[in-house]
Specification:
VC0802-like; 2 domains; Rossmann fold; alpha/beta; methyltransferase; seven-stranded mixed sheet; RNA_MeTrfase_FtsJ_dom; S-adenosyl-L-methionine; SAM-dependent_MTases_sf; 16 strands; Putative RNA 2'-O-ribose methyltransferase
Length: 392
């Protein structure tokens, strides 16, 4: 299940797809390119093949291990509507970015790579005036890819100027239009692809790069901050994370996740056997509880939020989070599920299905989002909203 904010955006896609944007870009695509964390290619490939079967858009995944990318090849060309809507990025746990591929270009003339790209676009697309909202010159997010990063950075400015000279690129970045992506394996070849409004990550490489707060007690704070920004629209954040709300943080020490809640004026029961950062305790918003996270009960019987980043088996954590929601001890939750070494997608998908089925059986209306965040490592982050935290 996905958030209402995404459902509202999806309802607008038809107007985008059938309106001016689709008329200004005409292209044929038989494959999509997805970015992921290095080492998780097989997990993303398994997920994409399940999505393919569910949506009856058949094809196969192809990837090189540790290349941080998976390409899904379709047996038939995608319609414009399918290019906009199918394989929704918000529904893919292990995907950072979703691109519709139109082809690859060999850049044999190192002195004039741009002409090769412009000629390819003229011959293989029908781009009209100001049909593109922005461009990205990108590379795989791994050590070898970082060697290409310097080239991409230098190449972006002249490439942007060339596309603007042709009249294809808007005068200023426009998030309401398709973006064009040039994905370089090295400086002699690139894959050309498009991303579409409401079904893409807006940042290069699909990465949310956040600044670490100087007064935060640990870098784990960035995981919760990224989850909040990715999973909730600004309107949802205003509704769901109000000053004066209450929360329980299981496995809190030294306070990375508690920091995010306290910074929003939320009162936190911090549960752990370690020590909390003194700066957090000094706020007067934190009540420290030295207790077992699996046995702890909220002081007043209920809190608005349950957050959890305990290093435990994912089955135990998933069951605990479900019980808190079913027993009405928490309205909503954000938690991490630590991943096993093998069959990570299959195990995670099973746990999420169990949570969803249990909540449905208890007739608890909810919205669930799950993602392998940039600031996650061998774990995924899950958010479940229920009750008063749902946007109608």
């Amino acid at each position: 299940m996905i958030s209402n904010s995404f459902n509202q955006e999806t309802s607008n896609k038809d107007s985008v797809c059938q309106g001016s944007s689709s008329k200004r870009i005409a292209l044929e695509s038989k494959s999509m390119l997805f970015y992921c964390r290095e080492g998780y290619e097989a997990d993303l490939a398994a997920e994409l093949e399940q999505v393919s079967a569910n949506q009856h858009l058949y094809g196969y995944s192809k990837f090189v291990p540790h290349n941080a990318m998976v390409q899904f090849h379709f047996y038939e060309s995608l319609s414009t509507k399918q290019q906009f809507e199918s394989f929704a990025l918000d529904d893919c746990i292990f995907a950072r970015q979703r691109l519709c591929v139109i082809g690859s270009v060999e850049l044999t003339d190192a002195a004039d790579r741009i002409s090769s790209i412009v000629d390819y676009l003229k011959n293989n697309t029908e781009l009209s005036q100001h049909s593109l909202g922005d461009i990205f010159a990108e590379h795989a997010d791994h050590e070898k890819g970082k060697e290409v990063a310097k080239f991409c950075k230098k190449f972006t400015v002249p490439l942007r100027q060339a596309l603007r000279k042709e009249g294809w690129l808007s005068s200023k970045p426009n998030s309401g239009l398709p973006f064009i992506h040039f994905v370089f394996s090295d400086s002699s070849e690139c894959t050309i692809a498009f991303s579409y409004p409401k079904n893409r990550h807006s940042q290069p490489l699909g990465i949310s790069r956040l600044k670490f707060p100087n007064d935060a007690p640990s870098r784990s704070t960035l995981k919760l901050e990224e989850a909040i920004q990715l999973f909730m629209s600004p309107a949802q954040q205003s509704l769901c994370l109000q000053k004066g709300m209450t929360a329980v943080d299981l496995g809190a020490c030294p306070g990375g996740w508690t920091y995010q809640l306290v910074s929003r004026g939320i009162h936190v029961e911090a549960v752990d056997n370690g020590a909390m950062a003194e700066t957090l305790m000094a706020t007067g918003l934190v009540s420290y509880q030295a207790a077992d996270g699996f046995k702890y009960q909220p002081v007043d019987g209920h809190v608005d939020w349950l957050v959890c980043d305990m290093i435990e088996k994912p089955e135990r954590v998933a069951e605990l989070m479900t019980h808190w929601l079913c027993d009405r001890k928490a309205t909503s939750t954000i938690f991490n599920l630590k991943l096993p070494m093998k069959q990570r997608f299959q195990i995670v998908a099973g746990l999420i299905a169990n949570i969803t089925n249990t909540l449905n059986e208890r007739q608890i209306k909810h919205q669930l989002r799950a993602k392998h965040l940039y600031h996650d490592r061998d774990e995924i982050t899950v958010m479940i909203l229920t009750g008063a935290h749902l946007l109608e």
